[in-house]
Amino acid sequence: MSNELYAVMGNPVAHSKSPRIHSLFAGQTGEPVEYTAIQAPLDGFAEAVRQFFESGGKGLNVTVPFKEQAWELAECRAARAEKAGAANTLYRNGTGQLVADNTDGYGLVRDLVANHGVQLKGARILVLGAGGAVRGVLGPLLEQHPASLTLANRTVAKAETLAKLFADEAGAATMSACGFKEPGQLFDVIINGTSASLQGDLPPLDSNVIGADTVVYDMMYSLQTTTFNQWAQDKGASRVFDGLGMLVEQAAESFRVWRGVLPETAPVIKALRND
Ligand code: ATR
User: How far apart are CA 84 and CA 78, in angstroms?
Assistant: First the structure.
């Protein structure tokens, strides 16, 4: 059988680990998947998507800075992508419509719960940031029925807007928004979804949010411990995780959406750690 074409589209995209991840998935499952990276021009995303599918492409992952555009471009959206306002997965359905999905939140929850055994049900969760990355994961986090979800952001108004937007999904969970200095209490799980680490910056949190049992998760990943996780460790957090597992889990879920087969993630996470 000849290979079917998939790709990650972004700008820049050369650093993306997605081609490596999906080629490991293809090898493991025997699915005829060929997966490349495509750098779309900053002002030419829609055209690049059109060309990709017209030339026979089957599915796309979408990364920075195009996730919101991918969501807008789609003719229909998976329920979990609707509220996320951003899409990381595109494909055409049986009638040729462009469908958007978002597997980022699934990836985060799966990494926390299945890979690291973190209990989210009944947990007091602090999420840092209120940009696209955070918006994409709030729905799946709330589906786990935490006791509370506090959104802290540099620009408090953005956290307040997100808290309102997801109030319907919160159910019995207490949802609130504040600045970095305000939480003033201990949390069970702290998730850094700001892009501060990219600049080697730290959100200026008080260390009283962290106790010995607090689990800290940085949605970023890097070869060395991330700036945020280093800070959390220094303040006494016993378990800190970076976003590599999330990256592999969101990719696996995209693969399942496209191919109907969910690859095993553990060997792929291990392979990437050793790269
Ligand atoms: P992304 O798609 O990565 O979420 P984004 O939508 O631009 O990117 O959002 C970036 C997030 O990181 C925002 O919450 C931003 O805070 P503001 O809403 O106040 O801009 C946060 N952020 C970026 N740089 C930061 C820094 N140096 N310190 C703290 N927060 C920062």
Answer: 10
Whether residue 235 lies in the annotated active site: no
Beta strand 124-128 pairing with 189-192: parallel
Class of domain 106-242: alpha beta
Q: Are strands 59-62 and 89-92 parallel, antiparallel or unpaired?
A: antiparallel
- For domain 4-102+245-274, say whether CATH 3.40.50.10860 is its number: yes
Dist. CA 48–CA 43, nearest whole Å: 10
CA atoms of 256 and 55, how far apart (whole Å): 22
Q: Where in the chain is the domain with CATH 3.40.50.10860?
A: 4-102+245-274
CA separation, residue 214 to residues 105, 151, 178, 225, 236 (Å): 20, 16, 20, 17, 9
pLDDT, one tens digit per residue, over 156-199 is: 999 999 999 999 999 999 999 999 998 889 999 999 999 988 78
Q: Which residues of the chain have pLDDT under 50?
A: none
Distance (angstroms) between ligand 1 centre and the Cα of 6 equals 30
Annotated catalytic residue: which of 67, 158, 164, 235? 67
- Cβ neighbourhood burial of 225 (10 Å; 0-12, 13-18, 19+): middle
CA 144 to chain centroid: 16
Report how far ligand 1's centroid is from the alpha carbon of 105 (Å): 18
pLDDT for 1: 67
Helix segments in the chain, DSSP class H: 18-29, 45-54, 67-73, 79-82, 104-110, 132-142, 156-165, 167-170, 227-234, 244-259, 266-274
- The position carrying tokens 């802290």 is 152
User: What's the predicted TM-score (pTM) here?
Assistant: 0.96
